[in-house]
Design brief:
The protein has about 350 residues and is α/β, with parallel strands linked by helices. It has 7 helices and 20 strands. The strands form 6 sheets. Strands 1, 2, 5, 6, 7, 8 and 19 form a 7-stranded mixed beta sheet that branches. The protein binds flavin-adenine dinucleotide.
């Protein structure tokens, strides 16, 4: 996509955690089209990133569901509304323009929206930088912590480091287009999904992938261009030629750019009213873990309620002067049409 062409939409939702996902549903019922942006490469926020296999017991009507299970169900529930997702993109700038807001991501995407819904949880997930001297000078040219466009890695000699889902998923996805691929992990035991681990081992057996148990000790190159890595294996330290390194060392949550958007903040949270869940800026809403108000509970179910009330107010901004009729999904044929069930 051409980053310079603004994407026009009713609403932009910042964050594809459970609350951002449910906001797509509540906005969709009111004919509000949403684009969803997340710095992660998949939906689910904390549920998918921090506890995909842990059971949650307090989602109404789901006596037990895992973090990933809840994410999958939400994705299914919001499917009728055709929200567009932009993963591996961090919203860096948010400013008011004529008729609404303009948002810009670190990948150069620009959005124009009438309302903005900040569902950013504890802030953006930020990759942990490996403790390697001078690594920052290679970032963006030879060292990457996320894959925004797979084509950037075509024909390159890749080294991917890590043992979790991101490391294994990208090893499997990039191996077919790379010139060579090496996966380095400090032990021969992987946290990633067993299916991905099996596929990785098959590729190694077929000779399409090198698996190295060990640790990267040093980067070698000049002017941000990587030429090789010094790798400590089981028995020796050796030089591994490579021109692209993808370390997946986990993520931490940081408030990130939200602090620079001119919103009132209180202890890194966005204070809102409890009628509309609007921030200090009209048209900018904050729902889920990122907001604060008296009595706030950082629970998924609270975020779902906040999304429903936020959508009512967003409707009045997007359709000024139009009456909003309160309707039940059980009995409204117009809502059922939107849901695609009749
Ligand atoms: C171990 C654990 C167990 C939990 N168990 C429960 C439980 O049993 N029940 C319960 O109700 N809650 C539980 N929680 C809390 C629950 O996960 C959170 O309340 C919920 O995830 C909040 O959802 P959210 O959508 O507001 O934010 P998040 O899930 O944090 O998602 C926010 C998303 O916004 C993205 N983002 C932030 N800033 C930007 C930006 N500038 N640009 C692009 N993307 C951005 C982030 O990358 C993230 O993906 C648990 C939490 C943890 C850590």
């Amino acid at each position: 996509m051409d980053g310079a062409t603004p994407i026009e939409t009713d609403a932009v939702i910042i964050g594809a955690g459970p609350v951002g996902l449910f906001a797509v549903f509540e906005l969709g019922l009111l004919d509000i089209k949403a684009h969803v942006i997340d710095i992660l490469d998949r939906a689910g926020g904390q549920c998918a990133e921090l506890y995909p296999e842990k059971p949650i017991y307090d989602i109404p009507a789901l006596p037990i569901v895992t973090g990933q299970g809840l994410t999958d169900r939400l994705m299914e529930q919001i499917k009728p509304f055709g929200a567009e997702f932009h993963f591996s993109e961090r919203v860096d700038a948010l400013r008011r323009v004529d008729g609404g807001f303009e948002l810009e991501t670190d990948g150069g995407l620009i959005f124009r929206a009438k309302v903005v819904v900040i569902a950013a949880g504890g802030g953006s997930f930020t990759p942990k930088r490996p403790p390697l001297a001078g690594i920052e000078t290679y970032e963006g040219k030879s060292v990457f912590y996320a894959v925004k466009r797979m084509d950037e890695f075509r024909g390159r000699d890749l080294v991917i480091v890590g043992g979790g889902d991101s490391a294994l998923d990208w090893t499997l996805n990039l191996q077919p287009i790379a010139n060579s691929t090496t996966l380095i992990h400090r032990r021969d035991d992987f946290r990633a999904a067993p299916d991905s681990v099996n596929k990785m081992r098959e590729l190694v057996a077929q000779g399409g992938l090198r698996l190295q148990i060990g640790q990267v000790m040093q980067l070698k190159g000049a002017d941000g261009v990587l030429e090789s890595l010094s790798v400590r294996g089981d028995t020796e330290t050796f030089d591994l030629p490579c021109n692209c390194l993808l370390p997946f060392f986990g993520l931490t949550m940081k408030l990130g750019p939200i602090a620079d958007w001119g919103l009132n903040l209180h202890e890194n949270l966005i204070p809102v009213d409890t009628e509309k869940f609007e921030s200090s800026e009209k048209g900018i809403f904050a729902i889920g873990d990122i907001n604060s108000y008296p009595g706030k509970l950082k629970l998924i179910l609270s975020g779902f309620h906040e999304a429903a009330l936020m959508a009512q107010q967003a409707y009045h901004i997007i359709y000024p002067g139009k009456r909003l009729l309160f309707q039940y999904t059980t009995s409204s044929s117009s809502l059922q049409k939107k849901l695609g069930v009749i």
